[in-house]
Design goal:
The chain is mainly α. It contains 11 helices and no strands. The chain is rod-shaped, with a radius of gyration of 29 Å.
Length: 263
């Protein structure tokens, strides 16, 4: 957590020093220069705690997405080649067994579809295709929903930082209005505003980073969803050959051939 605070403070340090006006005096300037990044971030007040939690959540999501949002999690060449061969042979129980041992999303779609097809031999191609499309849509929605969490962090972090700044400035003006305060009002105002802006700057940095990675993973999610749709359509076309009339099977086999280069 200290490393994250230091990273944020590195960007906030020049702004914080500039917030100290020259008339405040050399003593205040030297005091600000002696602050470490950790001390500077601690001046942000209570808002730094929820911002730290949001930054940890963002880092955890990034690590999870780097592992889970890859093409191998959606489909693999070995599974697609095996499914291609078994479907052309009409070995649905064999493909169901293979699909249950694979973790790819397209394998989960085919497992659900084949399980229904084996239990209901008279099911039409349209009903099987509907089951496959529904399962694929469910998997695609899961991919999209996970990515949205990064956007939530990107929206919440600046708002939390701004709220912390409002509270800090309010306290600063409250101290200025107190008769017990002996320090010059200019010093109190500059110090209070400088400390409060640390929270806003931290929230903006966390939000910008989160939204940047959200845009990156959103585009990647769209590509994965497109790959899932293409693979599902291909396998369902091969599955439909088993329900086609004998006279049209040869013609449809030529249109449903599997392209190794695509996968």
């Amino acid at each position: 957590m200290k490393f994250i605070f230091n990273l944020i403070g590195l960007s906030l340090l020049p702004a914080s020093l500039l917030a100290q006006e020259e008339p405040v005096g050399a003593v205040a300037g030297e005091s600000a220069k002696n602050l470490s990044l950790w001390d500077l971030l601690q001046l942000g007040g209570w808002a730094m705690f929820p911002l730290a939690v949001l930054s940890i959540i963002a880092v955890m999501l990034l690590l999870i997405f780097l592992v889970s949002m890859r093409r191998g999690a959606v489909l693999s060449r070995s599974y697609m080649n095996t499914a291609d061969v078994l479907l052309k042979k009409g070995d649905l129980p064999g493909l169901l067994s293979i699909s249950s041992r694979h973790s790819e999303m397209v394998a989960r779609v085919m497992q659900r579809t084949l399980d229904f097809a084996i239990k209901n031999p008279r099911a039409s191609v349209e009903s099987l295709r509907e089951i496959a499309e529904t399962e694929a849509a469910s998997r695609a929605a899961a991919i999209q929903h996970r990515v949205v969490y990064l956007a939530d962090v990107g929206v919440l972090a600046p708002m939390v930082g701004l709220f912390g700044t409002v509270v800090g400035i309010t306290k600063s003006f409250g101290v200025m209005g107190s008769e017990a305060s002996q320090a010059p009002r200019a010093i109190l105002l500059a110090s209070g505003v400088s400390d409060a802006l640390v929270a806003t700057g931290s929230g903006l940095i966390i939000g910008i980073i989160a939204m940047g990675f959200y845009a990156l993973f959103r585009n990647k999610a769209q590509r994965l969803i497109s790959d899932l749709d293409i693979a599902t359509t291909h396998l369902m076309s091969l599955l439909a050959l088993g329900h086609a009339p004998p006279g049209t099977r040869d013609r449809r086999e030529r249109t449903a051939s599997f392209d190794d280069e695509e996968y």
